[in-house]
Amino acid sequence: MNRIFDRYAGVAFLLVGAAFVWESRKIGESSYGSNVGPDIFPMGLGILLILLSARLLYETLRGRMTDAASGEKPRLDYKRFGILVGAALLYAYFLEDIGYVLGTFLFLLLGFQVIERGRWLVSLLVSALFSFGVYYLFVQVLEGTLPGFPSWMNLG
Amino acid sequence: METLQFLADGFASALQWQNLLFAFVGVLIGTAVGVLPGIGPMSGVALLIPVTATLTSGQDPASAATSAIILLAGVYYGAMYGGSTTSILLNTPGESSSVVTTLDGYQMARQGRAGAALSIAAIGSFVAGIVALVALVLLAKPLSEVAIKFGPAEYFSLMLLGLAAVSGLAGKSMTKALIMTVLGLLLATIGMDNVSGVARFTYNVPVLYSGLEFLTVAVGLFALGEVFKTVLHRDYGGGEIIKVGRVLPTRQDLKESAGPIARGSLLGFFIGVLPGAGATLASFFSYIMEKKLSRNPEKFGKGAIAGVAAPESANNAASGGAMIPLLTLGIPGSGTTAILMGALIMYNVQPGPLLFEDHPGVAWGLIASMFIGNLMLLVLNMPLVKVFAKIIETPPKYLLPIIIAISVFGVYAVQYTTFDLLLLIGCGIAGYFLAQNDYPLAPLVLGLVLGPMIENNMRRALTASNGDFSIFLTKPISLAFLLVAVLWLLVPLLLKLRGKKVIINEEA
């Protein structure tokens, strides 16, 4: 897996480097008097990144098979990971719409249950305590701003 | 004498009640963070930056910066200490710098001497912290006076040296480490160019104008990356925890560990000052050294107290030593110090030689609070060892989602954009896959923090020389830095070519 990842990563980094070089050619003209414009640094780095990823690709192509074959890969828990990342994305994306308290409560409850089913009462309590607690401390005590509740709930 | 006066002022500021509280909270959280599986010093410090930002929001900028950095530094060395607890009780190191501690610490615990091992680790860390502190006080002023004479060319080369040192020693493949460094530097160019005011790589997306926020990237890469790893690998711990038992070490224990603690502190400090080396290497070297010096080396690995005392002192001394290049030169030598530096910059405090002139309160307040923090660490840890041992048992079921929630809260409370939250999660996923495939993350963060400064200094130097790149080679100090940087990259490569095993710094 390591070598395959390295190969893809090498290509990806190569493309990133190329993109930075290509795009930094567009910035150049707008520089003022100095002949060292804002394009030089990213362009140089882009070239460096291309060279380094070429080197990485070279290393993986003539790579030692021993690395890839050694050791058995543990079976990864993509299901829990997927659900957790999905939930986190939804939580992040809708945070401003559904408010901090509700969003955090739902996210935590789901997170707890995804990692280990059961003990609903504890899960409910911990998520409620955390979401209300953080909101109360931050907004009331420290006078910060967070989107508290969705606007249709008229709770503030 | 002037230094003493500043130090006294520093103590006055560190002894203010709110700063005492911040130091206490920092050390407490830090120890907990070090003990908890899954969060190390780096993610701990990164996670707490936004929390401290809100805690200090009521104060004026200078004292807010002082309080914040006092808390964060407390987390840093608290975590260094906390990591040893799991090494000793569980045989699983909390972070890589306490890997060596497992060798003898766990054996001691199995012989029923867990308490002695834990308390000797605390005493060693305390002594080491004090040694590092004294050296810091002695070196800070002269070093920053040298550094203040540096022009942009020297600075550029010095920062390159810092990057080269961290990349040369981080991770298994130098190619990968260098790629991460360059990537970090490139990501730092996104946003408004602060020399010419030109927007770069923003494509008219408003959130990109201020650039990628370092905090978001760091929290994502380290904290979320670790959470995702734990979930994917079903790494929920669950080892058997050994009872602590009698806490105080015996007189014999103390006698046997006095030498190792002194030697470990000194060695650790000097390794810590070197950029890129850091706590992990320090603990390895001091363990090897003690084994060589010992009259009965066969006891090592079977529960020798020197095998706990030396590496634990060394890794704490190294984290103190790492503060020197950060505070005097503005060059972070490791991932955690890079994060601390990012935090200082968030408060508009620029670490570097000018720090001692512009913000003496911050610099000396931090130094003084490190002393107080170390004292607290000792006072806190001796009686509370058993409580911290309980923290290990926090069920990961609750811990993991809460870490995600704290990350989201922290980033949102500072940035107020959904974009940063999505970037945070993206960085978490990227952080997991990169770290899993031996791409070290610390160089990336270092590049991101140093990027704007490197570019500024490079362009100022080049503007002065009319675009002639040879300015970096004709100035002697700059040339020396560049040569050392090249050597730092070449020597490990040459050693590897000759088939030697190179000790690398996994934690960075």
TrEMBL record, chain A:
Top-level taxon of the source organism: Bacteria
InterPro entries from the UniProt entry: DUF1468 (IPR009936)
Boundaries of every DUF1468 domain copy: 8-147
Membrane spanning stretches: 40-58, 78-94, 100-115, 120-138
Alphabetically ordered keywords of this record: Membrane, Transmembrane, Transmembrane helix
Pfam families: TctB
Protein name: Tricarboxylate transport protein TctB
Provenance organism: Paenibacillus pasadenensis
Lineage: Bacteria, Bacillati, Bacillota, Bacilli, Bacillales
Automatic annotation (TrEMBL), chain B:
Keyword check for Membrane: yes
Domain of life: Bacteria
Keywords: Membrane, Transmembrane, Transmembrane helix
InterPro entries for this protein: DUF112_TM (IPR002823)
Protein's name in the database: Tricarboxylate transport membrane protein TctA
Pfam families for the chain: TctA
All residue ranges annotated as the DUF112 domain in the record: 20-446
Organism: Paenibacillus pasadenensis
Residues annotated as transmembrane: 20-49, 61-79, 116-140, 177-195, 207-225, 266-289, 326-349, 361-381, 402-435, 477-495
